């Protein structure tokens, strides 16, 4: 079926879905396939649960006129998303980066919502499946779209940009994330900069942190809107992070609920994008001050007599380094519980040792390492090969009231520590 005709059918549906566990009435179900699953098998179930159509790519599952047979379901999903994006004709902001992209996306969204009806990436829908689903979640009431893009190898951001066709783009930073797939830090810079290449080629606009030398260098030929502490189109002053970040722009002070000075750039980007799209200064201030992080991202949780900084959604050497430097500033008794950082390839051993060395040299009262990579490091602090090993021997009841940082990669699921307190 031609994409234009499929799109007409899609407009009669409520949304797109790839998971029968989340089907709602009048969805368009896409039967995706992977190494260990075949969505075609569930087409009939999707229809029985209320899906209006099921897009399949294996003829044996073509059981009714509600099934639409295509050559490749994933490619059809992606093509339909691009067609829908062009149909809506709305401004779309794309963002990527090694650290902070989800927090920045949330901040941009809450700021723009003060003036516009927005649709933004939800959860972790930032890959070759999630980005199309994000685009298809937009409708005629959407005035602006905000699309987060994740990547762990070359050409992935380029591919996602060609699906999304963004009008604006922002890269939060270039750090030590997904080193295995990208092939080192230089590979990270090259891979993430594919967004710049797309925007420059198509004469679109880039938001640039003028205090980031790599961003400035990579966008010399781009249409730019700059922000920074000085000498930028939008000047934003960092005041403090004690523990929450506060900043000032145009004589207006903003007191956020985000910890860590590394969140200053995320806030500054949201301020700049809000300014560009004519959100009032007072509305920008209100939006940022009301934003409370969740989903294991720099959450502040009070548990018994302990203050927990839960940052267990993800971790890489850059974010771990920044988190520890910020944590050292905490007052009172402090403990850092650190879990393995994933997808570092051949750099895993040295990067985990670097973090162990850093932790040993900081003014943190007590540090615990959990995971196979941290277990191999040389350190004066206790190490546990697995979470279960840690759980069996550590007794929080003996711990004096403390501020506790919990940080590790998603696969470590260190939020489980909360249940031990």
Automatic annotation (TrEMBL):
The gene is murF. The keyword Nucleotide-binding applies. It is an enzyme of class 6 (ligase). It comes from the Bacteria. Its main location: cytoplasm. It is found in: Cytoplasm. This is UDP-N-acetylmuramoyl-tripeptide--D-alanyl-D-alanine ligase. It comes from Neotamlana sedimentorum. Gene3D superfamilies: Mur ligase, C-terminal domain, Mur-like, catalytic domain, MurE/MurF, N-terminal domain. It catalyses: D-alanyl-D-alanine + UDP-N-acetyl-alpha-D-muramoyl-L-alanyl-gamma-D-glutamyl-meso-2,6-diaminopimelate + ATP = UDP-N-acetyl-alpha-D-muramoyl-L-alanyl-gamma-D-glutamyl-meso-2,6-diaminopimeloyl-D-alanyl-D-alanine + ADP + phosphate + H(+). GO terms for molecular function: ATP binding; UDP-N-acetylmuramoyl-tripeptide-D-alanyl-D-alanine ligase activity; UDP-N-acetylmuramoylalanyl-D-glutamyl-2,6-diaminopimelate-D-alanyl-D-alanine ligase activity.
């Amino acid at each position: 079926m031609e994409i234009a005709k499929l799109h007409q059918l899609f407009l009669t549906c409520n949304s797109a879905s790839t998971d029968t566990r989340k089907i709602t009435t009048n969805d368009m179900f896409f039967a995706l396939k992977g190494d260990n699953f075949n969505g075609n098998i569930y087409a009939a179930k999707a229809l029985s649960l209320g899906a209006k159509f099921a897009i399949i790519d294996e003829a044996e599952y073509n059981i009714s006129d509600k099934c639409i047979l295509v050559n490749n379901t994933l490619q059809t999903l992606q093509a339909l998303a691009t067609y829908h994006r062009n149909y809506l004709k709305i401004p779309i902001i794309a963002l990527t980066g090694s650290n902070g992209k989800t927090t920045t996306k949330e901040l941009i969204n809450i700021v723009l919502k003060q003036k516009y009806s927005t649709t933004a990436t939800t959860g972790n829908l930032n890959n070759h499946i999630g980005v199309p689903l994000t685009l298809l979640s937009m409708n005629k009431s959407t005035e602006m779209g905000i699309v987060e893009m994740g990547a762990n190898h070359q050409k992935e951001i380029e591919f996602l940009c060609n699906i999304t066709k963004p009008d604006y783009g922002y890269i939060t930073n270039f750090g030590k994330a997904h080193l295995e797939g990208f092939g080192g830090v230089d590979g990270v810079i090259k891979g993430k900069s594919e967004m710049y290449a797309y925007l420059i080629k198509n004469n679109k606009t880039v938001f640039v942190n003028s205090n980031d030398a790599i961003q400035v260098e990579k966008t010399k030929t781009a249409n730019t809107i700059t922000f920074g502490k000085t000498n930028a189109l939008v000047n934003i002053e960092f005041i403090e992070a004690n523990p929450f970040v506060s900043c000032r722009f145009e004589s207006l002070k903003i007191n956020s609920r985000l910890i860590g000075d590394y969140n200053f750039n995320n806030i500054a980007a949201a301020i700049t994008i809000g300014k560009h799209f004519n959100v009032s200064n007072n509305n920008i201030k209100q939006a940022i001050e009301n934003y409370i992080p969740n989903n294991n991202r720099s959450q502040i949780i009070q548990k018994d007599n302990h203050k927990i900084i839960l940052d267990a959604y993800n971790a890489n050497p850059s974010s771990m380094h920044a988190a520890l430097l910020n944590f050292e500033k905490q007052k009172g008794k402090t403990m850092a519980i650190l879990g393995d950082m994933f997808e570092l390839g051949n750099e895993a051993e040295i990067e985990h040792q670097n973090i162990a060395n850093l932790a040993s040299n900081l003014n943190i009262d007590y540090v615990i390492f959990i995971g196979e990579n941290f277990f191999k490091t040389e350190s004066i602090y206790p190490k546990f090969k697995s979470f279960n090993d840690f759980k069996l021997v550590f007794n929080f009841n003996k711990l004096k009231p403390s501020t506790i940082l919990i940080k590790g990669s998603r696969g470590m699921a260190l939020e489980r520590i909360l249940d031990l307190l």
